Amino acid sequence: MALLLILWIVLLVLGMSVALTLGVSSLVQLLADGTPIVVMAQRMTKAMSDSFPLLAVPFFIFAGNLMNTGGVTERIFGFARVLVGHFRGGLGHVNVLASVIFSGMSGSALADAGGLGNMEIKAMRQAGYDAGFAGAVTVASCIIGPMIPPSIPMVLYGVLADVSIGRLFLGGVVPGLLTAVALMIMVAWFAKKRDYPRDPTPTLREVAVSAKRAALPILTPGVIIAGIAFGFFSPTEAAVVASLYAMFLSMVVYREMGLKDLAVVILDTVRMTANVCMIVATASVFAWILAAHQAPMHLAAWLLTLTSDPLMLLLIINIAVFIAGFFVEGLAIMILVVPALAPTLASSGIDPVHFGVVFIFNLMIGLMTPPMGVGLFVVSGVSGIKLETLIRSTLPFLVPLAIVLLMLMFIPGLVTWLPNLVLGAQ
């Protein structure tokens, strides 16, 4: 097992992609163990074909891409701007609020950063905001995307930990809104300190016109949450509904997408889905090898020797996950860690929905921490802001996010209240 872990770390340091590091190190360990190579193919195939909920992932990716291409994001941005743009540092607040609205449709942080991000940063720079601040707000606010349902990471976590995806979706609502409030407080502090501009106060007519333009997209999260909560469809079926609705808006209602555009969106979705699937498949082999060597049992036994207090155990795990997020892609961490930790935490009295939402929030913070912060690279790529400038400007926003993370850890009700209210206590 030492060979597996050492080789994986070395390959990561050398800059190989996450999927390849997991695949190559797993292959070498299987050869060293004398295990037939066919096992690797079997495990990879099983990982992708055994779970119906995983079908939600490509459909949510597809929905996000449709909205970014079909004029939906522009309407969301415009609506958020008339609501909060007139406050000091208004476009910073708009950036955060637009992420809250868009998160209820795509379920992806990177779809937010790549789609809305380009529009938001361009508007902020034209209004006189410095580039670093504009990029930092965009990176920080994109992590709201996977917190407010729908959420691709929550689907994957639910599959790995055998936890109700519907409860996870509802559990992420309050943390997502709390994150938005924390970021807007930070934006207000910067705006006052740097005397950032504000938009003119909109008239009621302007608010009504913007609300009308954005009304149909804003309905999406309500339809998804209500449909899952009241049993009209499963999370996987909700992803299909979201995709069909996004296609209807983009191609029929707004008519900003044609068949050629649809083909491009489908191709982009296939590429993104293939990347996720490769990580899931190779990580499943990696996790299977760890399980065969009884690594999860040893890890659980070691953690329980550190403390018997559930909250301290949760704190230790989250510190470790936060540090791992500097160096390892979040999806890989989830697939490797969750199967090992979920049973241990459940036996310690920690609600699996509570842990899942906290864990995912922690992983999303990893999107904005160098050197592996994928959110940093996406925002830098779409905006042209230098990576060094973006990293330096993003660091202060870790403070409100760390405060929210601690609140979620030590006040479980922030996560569990809404699922228990809507679906009943477990």
Summarize the entry for a quick read.
The chain has helices at residues 2-13, 18-33, 38-49, 56-69, 72-84, 90-106, 109-126, 131-142, 152-161, 165-171, 173-194, 204-229, 235-253, 259-292, 295-306, 310-324, 330-347, 352-365, 374-383, 387-394, 398-410, 413-423. The protein is an all-alpha fold and 426 residues long. The protein has one domain.
Structure characterization notes:
- This protein has 426 residues and is mainly alpha-helical.
- The protein has one domain (36-423).
- It has 22 helices and no strands.
- The chain has helices at residues 2-13, 18-33, 38-49, 56-69, 72-84, 90-106, 109-126, 131-142, 152-161, 165-171, 173-194, 204-229, 235-253, 259-292, 295-306, 310-324, 330-347, 352-365, 374-383, 387-394, 398-410, 413-423.
- The longest helix has 34 residues, at 259-292.
Notable features of this structure?
426 residues; mainly alpha; globular
Helix content: over 70%
Return the average pLDDT rounded to an integer: 85
The unreliable regions are none
- Total number of helices: 22
Rg measurement, Å: 21 Å
Rough outline: globular
- What is the total number of structural domains? 1
Topology (SSEs and partners):
Elements: H1 2-13, H2 18-33, H3 38-49, H4 56-69, H5 72-84, H6 90-106, H7 109-126, H8 131-142, H9 152-161, H10 165-171, H11 173-194, H12 204-229, H13 235-253, H14 259-292, H15 295-306, H16 310-324, H17 330-347, H18 352-365, H19 374-383, H20 387-394, H21 398-410, H22 413-423
